[in-house]
Amino acid sequence: MTSYLVRRVAGALVILMIISAITFYLFYAVPRDPARAFCGKICQPETLALIRHNLGMDEPLFVQYWHWLVGIFAGREFVQFGSCPAPCLGYSFATQEPVFSAIVDRFPVTVSLTLGASVVILAFGILTGMIAAWKVGQPLDKIASSSSVIGASLQIYFVGPLLAFYLVDTMQLIPRPSYVPITENPLDWFTHLMLPWVVLSIIFTANYTRMTRSQMVEQLAEDYVRTARAKGMSSRSVFFRFAWRGAMIPILTIFGVDLATLLGGAIITEQTFSLHGIGELAVRAVQNTDLPMLLGVTIVGAAAIVLLNIVVDVLYAFIDPRVRLS
Amino acid sequence: MTFPSSTATDAAAESADTAGTAGSGSAVVGRSPGQLMWRRFRRDKTGVVSAIIVLAFFLIALLAPVIAALYGKDPYTTYGQNQPGLLNEFGYPIAPNGGVSGDFWFGLEPGLGRDVFTQLVYGIRTSLSIAVIVTVVSTIIGIAMGITSGYIGGKTDYVIGRVIDTLLAFPSQLFLIVFLPVVEAAFVLPEEETPVWLRYVSICVVLTVLGWATIARLLRAQVLSLRAREFVEAARVTGASPARVIFKELLPNLWTPIIIQATLALPLYVGAEAGLGFLGVGMTEPTPDWGRMFQVGANVYHSDVTYLLFPGVSMLIFVVAFNLLGDSIRDAFDPKTKR
Fold first, then answer.
1. What is the pLDDT of residues A22-35, one digit of tens each?
2. What is the pTM of this model?
3. Quick check: A150 and B320 CB within 8 A?
4. What whole-number distance in Å separates Cα of residue B264 and Cα of residue B261?
């Protein structure tokens, strides 16, 4: 188990290195010169060179990348901004704030959003999928299946404002979505994030309903189910004690892959409800062409996905006793 | 051309046909797999209805200028600002339901006062054309990479495989918005305004680069299993060139997964392009864009929720129809698989 984890983490670090190198190269190889933006309208060549030096941009690209990489582990000094303690991802060109602390500030919002949505997706999607599989071919199954077709075709940026209009503006059933730290008031944290969770999970829930249903139907045709039934176990116990476990394994695999998409959905959900999370940070950085911020967000996003995938793989071992991590 | 996978279904369908027509005594008609697929598809009512809806959307996109000319308005004129009595002092339509009337079928855009109907028709044109281009190009790249990787194997397979793995591990939505300015910056100096065609091309490029890996991975696996089949081996032993094996033996057996994958991908690209527009990094003003209408809609829904309904409901109808069509095509191509 330990050696498995060590190997997976090492592999993850290699992937992150590759991603960061590619991203760094793509970002800094472009002719758009951030130093010019600092320089203002009337820009003397000497001033420009000085700013470039201060930003550390007068060195060859790979040296710059090396400095950036070292900065993450050991911190670095900027002539322009002063010292930046580890883990240092540089300073934003647009707001001059340290990239790392900007990301850390917004992290709880995005984590609350995606975690809450994951719970809704898995709980609700698997539940409806199992009900559909339990009542295969019956009206309940038909309702679940056809509503999942529509659910999967909905768009966050359409459902979000629409629900906000009817539930918040018109009926005033729930408070306007915003982020209240869970440490401040857990109840407010919950009620204010309810709508974003529902909206983000609608599309995914529909997919999980479909997958759980087909997986369950497949599992119920397996030999071990027939054996259990032949030995006199009731169909209810077979269904709820054996079959669902087998069905969960592929679902978990797909969930691991979907995490990246969920993060993408979180960006759009944050924008829909004006939640100040990582996604909103990324969108603003794109509009300002704020390269250090974009690089930081990309790396943190990729790191989160890679890490969560390892967590999902470890979870297998707990659900499926046949899986041995080695 | 060999078609090992379809012989069984061929025989089954033919025997069913002869059973049905035995009384009338007509001869057994040989049908190609394509004809069989078409016959199965025509019998699927949901599929036919969805196909008509999808076709209608493509026709709307193609005929946008004609529709606008017949309707007598264009998506650029700010009618609400030019004619008094249409927008109130806050820029919202005075008439109820977002200003829907005989003159403005889908109402007026709050603020600028442009015509929503032509905006939507032209917006569909922009978004659908991007989605079609990206689907076609990424499918072609995916086919080329997948077949190369699976057929040649060895080091080539390893390299392409790692590239595919890395691409699929990316949080693609994040990369989509992050790489757009980078692609543009490579062509435009910061002082210049980004031309519309460049934004259009960079959206296509970024979506394609992040999109081809899925189909490539699928086809690689298919080619790996096909390569070991007797008919491919036979072709190789009898001296067929790699090009002949690929185009005459492998490709005919790959059309089913390719078409299924492409029908799955197209609505996703429509959604992704619209997502870019919504986030404000897609097509720029004044080019009409389906996705940017959602951005406007999200800003004005407190006072004018009707505006949001037109792009929203039309996209919902399109995506549902396309997904159902995809399911029907899958059933028609491959009647053995059950949903």
1. 888 877 766 556 66
2. 0.82
3. yes
4. 5
